[in-house]
Structures are given as structure tokens and as C-alpha cells.
Write a structure and sequence with these properties.
single chain, Rossmann fold, five-stranded parallel beta sheet, 5 helices, 18% strand
Amino acid sequence: MKASIANRTIVAVFPDGKDKTALIDIFSRSEWTLHFAQTLSETLAALGAFPGVVISQVRFADGHCWNGVLDEMQKMAFPPPLIVADRLADENLWAEVLSRGGYDLLAMPFDSKEVLNAVHTACRRNENSLEMTRLRKPGASVKLDAVSGSKVRAATTV
């Protein structure tokens, strides 16, 4: 299951502190590489180098917010998924994150299983989207099983 995820890089927008330490602990026993940023400009620079998945707190050290990162990411050809994290995670913030194009909302303090699951599924979904984009190029087609909708064979050139 994990082997097919090509980019195992996370950009985490968190200042020094217990939340950053918790993320380091969670990902230290995984195959994911963690890079930290604290400001919008640091985050955008990291995205240029490591566009895997972004986990962002609601507010940054420079006064910007998660939605500023999302706005900039949506300008990218293939934006990585954004997971927002907050101590006051509620249905309203979750709905806002999803409606703006974010992937998920995590409650803090972090639950390691929840974090790992959210990152894994976000990356899997992103890989699937990239694959579908590639397959939609002119001259490519995918045969689907009429009953299950699953791929019967690899893409073939028409």
C-alpha cells in the first residue's frame, strides 16, 4: 500500500513547539520526509522544492493563514493536497477547508494514526488525480470493467 506513493515529502507549517515536536515524533517512525516552514514565503519556497503534501496550522508566524497558502498552491499546475490543523477544529472550519479546496482538517493535539492516515490518503488521492490527468491526454484510453468500474488493463493508445 505505501510502496506506490512516489513523493513521501511533507511540508509542515508550524513554529517551534510541541506541535512541531509531535509531528517529528509521528513521522520519525515512517518513510515520510518532513520539512518545516513558519511563514508564507518559507512555505512557498518549500513547495517549489518538495511538493508532496502540506500540513498547515491555521495561522502562521508572519500573520498569514492557511488560505493564503491554498490560494498560492491553486496557481500550481499540480497543487499538492493541503491538510489544515487547529486546536479549535470544528465542523465550520472543516467545511471551509473542504469548500476552498483543502483536503482535510486535523484536530490538535495530534493523534498519530489520524495524521498518518490523512497524509497517506491525501497523497494517494493526489497520485490518482495525476494519473487520471495523464490518462486523459489525447490518444490514451482506459478500459473499465462495466460492473465494478475498476481498470481491466493498463492504458492503451487508441
